[in-house]
Amino acid sequence: MSTDSPSRRCIRECRIALVGALLAMGLASIARAAPPPDSGGSPRPPDPAIQETAREYAFSLFQVVAQVEQHYVRPVSRTELVEAALTGLYEAARQPIPIMLRQDLRSATGDLDLQAVILRAREELGDHEALRGPKALLASIAALPRALDPFCSITGPKEFQALDNDGGTPSIGLDFPLASGTPSLVGLAPEDPRLRGDGLRALRNSLPAGPVRITGVQPGSPAQKSGVRPGDLIVSVNGRTPESAGFATTFQRLLPPRAGVPVDFATLTTPVQLRLLRPGRPEPFEVTITPAAYRPESVFGARRKPDGRWDFLIDPEAGLGYVRIGLIQRHTPQELADALRSLRASGLRGLVLDLRWCPGGLLRQAATIARQLLAPDQIPIATQRDRNGRVSPVEFSPVETDATDFPILVLVNGETSGGGELIAAALQDHGRAVIAGQRTVGKSSVQEPMLENYGIPLKITTSTLLRPGQRGVTRSEAAADSWIVRPDPGREIPGSAELSRELKEWWTDYILRPAGNQDALPLDDPENDPQRQAALQMLRGLVAK
Predict the structure, then answer these.
(1) Fewer CB in a 10 Å sphere around the end CB: N or C, the chain?
(2) Closest CA to 339 of 319, 327, 324
């Protein structure tokens, strides 16, 4: 789960203080250390350009390591972090990390020793193609999670942009398998220097040689409304093919604007023509998409209405509602409030809240969703414990809490994670809902983004969540799997991994089908989702009581 807690402000403040501290420590003096001897035993002539590059790399990496060490959820040594980072650096250069370098790291007695080792490592690798520009720092930061936990990772900016999308900047809504840190150059004038040099080269290097595969389509986006699907291959953009010299410049029109980069709204809203090839379809086809400001959908219903909105009443005669929550984003609580308002106006008597495949998202928003469905006195939603053992309630936004007079059945599975688990756990521990399905992932850690100023967001774990029923337990008393949400007794709904994979694909297709599209899909037949059918049958029993 990601969070926008006050500790993010602390991270930024510490970053400023850290820069001053490093300058005071005299990192530049380390750079004047004698270069290592070459194979003949004589000093290698220093290359001023490499020395400067190494100084910049060492300075930046040490800032990153110090921030991670200070804010990670448990104590971790700078030596461990530096070793992981330098291992990633050498792997990028396709070389094994020298044994002597590891020994020097482990014998380092202070920050100056560590900085000297970082500097020497970068100088020795020289002007390697894989380490030019920001690549060296990117490779090292990407390797840091090896010293942390599996939920820490380096991600592209699009993940955080998707979570925090305010719907104000025009875009298309497509995702691509581009390298993390790939620059977005949308809206820049043709003469802008960022459309040349390292920025464009980085984008060009991250594109495949042939057609570009679309890996994701944002629900509610212009691309979704135009009928584009994940798996479609882009054969050309505005007539330019991937083999043409200007393709990278044209392709950047498909990427979301990058935070902090000025954009030309007139350029952003110019239609883009895509020629696509879809697996199973013999001939390429063309779509024209006009970028627009949109709010990504994260709350889905039983079926789309002709105007594209969702119908949340799955059984009008019985008054049964159905709401499915995907990635929890900034506006998800408001989307849920709108859905509940619509359902109550239609005579809602019971609700299936489908959290299958919910990957979590923003922490405060997840807590706000739980707050919407709980009575005013049913608190806390959850608590979080930081590295110092301090426990505090998870914050939520003020909302109406009148959605408490109907039964709720929450449907979860083995891919319900993070914020989805927070919602299910809060409703279960407060006795507000019946939980059905399969046990969840058990991801109780909270991640916060760092390093946005590098254009390389690194998620690190900063705290651990506790369920409402775990108040007062110590770190040692909390079981490793205590965050896992399990179905209530007698409410388990079986399902194989293959069925889950198939249903997830079908739901993706169902959500992305444009309004008015008549293409037949598996979920047009409700019986093709036996888990939802079983949940509805259980809900009918709850309503009858």
Answers:
(1) C
(2) 324
Q: What is the pLDDT of residue 246?
A: 78
Which residues in 453-492 are b (16+ Cβ under 10 Å) and which e?
Answer: ebbbbbbbbbbbbbbbebeeeeeeebeeebbbbbbeeebe
Q: Which residue bears the tokens 């058990």?
A: 442
Q: Tokens representing 207? A: 């594109």
Q: What is the pLDDT of residue 250?
A: 83
CA distance 486 to 412: 9
Contact assessment for residue 186 and residue 255, using Cβ atoms and an 8 Å cutoff: yes
Tokens, residue 188:
């820049």
Instruction: Give me the pLDDT at residue 473, please.
Output: 43
Half-sphere exposure of 444 (CA within 13 A, CB side): 23
Instruction: Give the C-alpha separation, 170 to 266, whole Å.
Output: 10
Whether 238 has a pLDDT exceeding 90, the answer reads yes
DSSP 496-532: -HHHHHHHHHHHHHHHHSPTT-----GGGSGGG-HHH
387-442 confidence digits (pLDDT tens): 988 999 999 999 887 788 999 999 999 999 999 999 999 999 999 999 999 999 99
CA 329/CA 363 separation, integer angstroms:
9
Q: 3-state DSSP call for residue 393?
A: strand
Angle at 382 between CA 381 and CA 386, to 5 degrees: 150
Left if phi > 0, otherwise alpha if psi is -120 to 50, otherwise beta: which for 167? left
Euclidean distance between CA atoms 429 and 432, whole angstroms: 8
Of residues 403, 395, 392, the one with CA closest to residue 366: 395
Q: Specify the pairing of strand 233-237 against strand 350-354.
A: unpaired
Most confident of 10-19, 67-76, 526-535: 526-535
Residue 112: enclosing H or E segment and its boundaries? helix 111-125
Whether 181 shows a pLDDT value over 90: the answer reads no
Residue among 418, 443, 406 nearest 355 (CA): 418
3-state secondary structure of 5: coil
Rounded Cα–Cα distance for residues 358 and 188 (Å): 36
List alpha helices for 26-107, DSSP H: 27-30, 48-71, 78-92, 99-107
**CA torsion angle for 241, 247, 253, 257 (degrees, to 10)?**
140
Pick the closest to residue 409 from 491, 467, 327 (CA basis). Answer: 491
Using CA of residue 118, residue 121, residue 124, residue 125, what is the dihedral sign? Answer: negative
The pLDDT tens digits of the residues spanning 482-539 come to 789 999 999 999 999 999 999 999 999 999 999 989 899 999 999 999 999 999 999 9
Q: Which residue type sits at 260?
A: G
Is 373 in contact with 410 (CB distance < 8 Å)? no
Residues whose CB falls within 8 Å of the CB of residue 534, separated by 6 or more in sequence, listed in order: 436, 493
